[in-house]
């Protein structure tokens, strides 16, 4: 991905990782469109930055995605980079029968969301020079957190989808996977204050340094996530999964105490 002069769509750009990257990408000389459901949050991210534009989008709604894509292309015909960053994470219990609405919403937002947005923009992107798609997955795509099983499965699904996209679009669109570790955002309640998560600004700065490499690597992996990404390759999957889940259970028990 070229470092400046892009027109970038950042889904989920109204908060957290999307907002932090939108600011940095803008300040590096790119135009950024931040998209999400909350206009107010988007406006706040755009405040004081002339080349950040806010547009509402609900990836849960297929018709809205199509309508949004037509509007964003009309308003920003130079759009050449898509960050599929919008996502939700819900905790779930697997040990007894339950209502599946959280699991279903997670699949719609985290799997159908990026599939829909990519599909709505693909004909435009393949016609652009320097086109890029960045899919935001997670370290949990590679080592699951048992208390968020559907979330982890959606991220593993998008990891796989990204591999197919990269192959299919070779020579037309650069396809990059960004897999964050735990980062201090409001993705789950209280996460923004937990010290074991990476501070958002540190994470976003590290991501920008990795993106600066030319050519940009296929996978953007900050230091903290590499143990997850490589656990299986390094023969450390079982121990990494055990450590992650022991640690998470302890942290949740402390938070609930
Ligand atoms: N923070 C972490 O520890 C971590 C780790 C690994 C991966 N990630 C991934 O990083 C991405 C960003 O998460 P974050 O940590 O920055 O959390 P966040 O602050 O909650 O950001 C998620 C964003 O997605 C948007 N969104 C949710 N549902 C949407 C929908 N139906 N349509 C459009 N936008 C929607 C939200 O905006 P609205 O509510 O306004 O729509 C919000 O701005 C997610 O894909 C997440 O899975 C995060």
UniProtKB/TrEMBL annotation:
Pfam families found in the cross-reference section: adh_short
Keyword rRNA processing among record annotations: no
GO molecular function, one term: oxidoreductase activity
Record keywords: Oxidoreductase
Coiled-coil parts of chain: none
KW Magnesium (keyword) present: no
Domain of life of the source: Bacteria
Family: Belongs to the short-chain dehydrogenases/reductases (SDR) family.
Protein name: SDR family oxidoreductase
Gene source species: Sphingomonas liriopis
